[in-house]
């Protein structure tokens, strides 16, 4: 059994849930970063439908929603010949390892997860057991491939810390030093935390009832422009230094979106627009957003019209993912001492 991964190359894993529309936060916080990483490392990008069913889903929509996420990955520039693109439920290791790790994780660890508290709301007793155990499945996703790096938005930080705790605990409990690596989150840059356009103190999210709060990946140029025009800012103009954005959530968010879309630093945006008002900045941001997002949404529409080709990518991805995870699972079974070990 292999003991030490330090000499092994990096492996990147990340997932996106097929639960309705993708928005600019998903794109800038995660998918856009996937595109860059595929050129440097072995990457697995997964549509996490097992996570989606932790809350009720419509049977008629689930497969279509999974295809949509896969199409968005490809439209954004992920090359399925390079990166492995697949659906979680098509590779058995995820569910198997999740069960095993449910027996490694502690109740107390999961009780601290803020996302469960947010999602379960007031009526915690009625939430599914799956929603509570959700972060353990996330750890299984990553560890089933012994992935070393995980590009995500900032909202996933706590889940990633839990994945590290679970990996370490498994290695200790089953006397398997170094078997699972401690996966490192890749959470950088202004795209890691995109906020609502209506309220700069809450994150942009698909569950926000106001459509004006987010830019959806399939919004038209007119919709994008209108939403940016209506975005909340403040009466002050654009400062010349980053400190000038302190305590100005709405302003900070729009400047951050510009920086992430144009792949420049926040300071560079400020240097370019210092002293200008929002009446000048917002049209420039809208123009940039349309220029960057329109090609992605056009390609997305084209791909969604060819589900046969998409399914082929996903089938091929499932086979490649299975080929990596199965030998790892065989070692896991041995460490535990299962009959089929
Ligand atoms: P999900 O589907 O909610 O979101 C997908 C990705 O988008 C990022 N994101 C954001 N980034 C910046 N600003 C925002 N406003 C914003 N909103 C969402 C998320 O951080 C995420 O990277 N639990 C995960 C899916 C998952 C996963 C995994 C991720 C399952 N298994 C294994 C990594 C590794 C989730 O619900 O993401």
Tell me which ligands are bound. Answer: tryptophanyl-5'AMP
Determine the structural class based on helices, strands and strand pairing: mainly alpha
Distance between the termini: 12 Å
Shape: globular
Q: Mean of residue pLDDT?
A: 95
Question: How many H/I helical runs?
Answer: 13
CATH topology assignment of the largest domain: Rossmann fold
Helix coverage percent: 40-55%
Strand order across the largest sheet: 1-2-3
Q: Please summarize the sheet with the most strands.
A: 3 strands, parallel
The arrangement of helices and strands along the chain is EHEHHEHHHHEHEHHHHH
The CATH homologous superfamily of the largest domain corresponds to HUPs
CATH top level of the largest domain is Alpha Beta
* Proportion of beta-strand residues: 5-15%
Level-2 CATH architecture of the largest domain: 3-Layer(aba) Sandwich
What is the number of domains? 2
User: What Rg do the Cα atoms give?
Assistant: 21 Å
Note poorly predicted spans. 1-7
The beta-strand count equals: 5
Secondary structure: elements and pairs:
Layout: E1 11-16, H1 24-37, E2 42-47, H2 49-52, H3 59-76, E3 84-87, H4 93-102, H5 107-111, H6 114-120, H7 129-143, E4 149-151, H8 157-173, E5 184-186, H9 221-230, H10 249-262, H11 266-273, H12 278-304, H13 307-336
Helix pairs in contact: 3-12, 4-7, 7-8, 9-12, 10-11, 10-12
Residues 13-17, 25-26, 29-30, 48, 51, 138, 141-142, 150, 152-153, 155-156, 159, 192-194, 203-204 line the site of tryptophanyl-5'AMP.
Jot down its keywords.
341 residues, mainly alpha, Rossmann fold, Tyrosyl-Transfer RNA Synthetase, 2 domains, 3-stranded parallel beta sheet, two-stranded parallel sheet, 13 helices, 5 strands, 52% helix, disordered N terminus, binds tryptophanyl-5'AMP
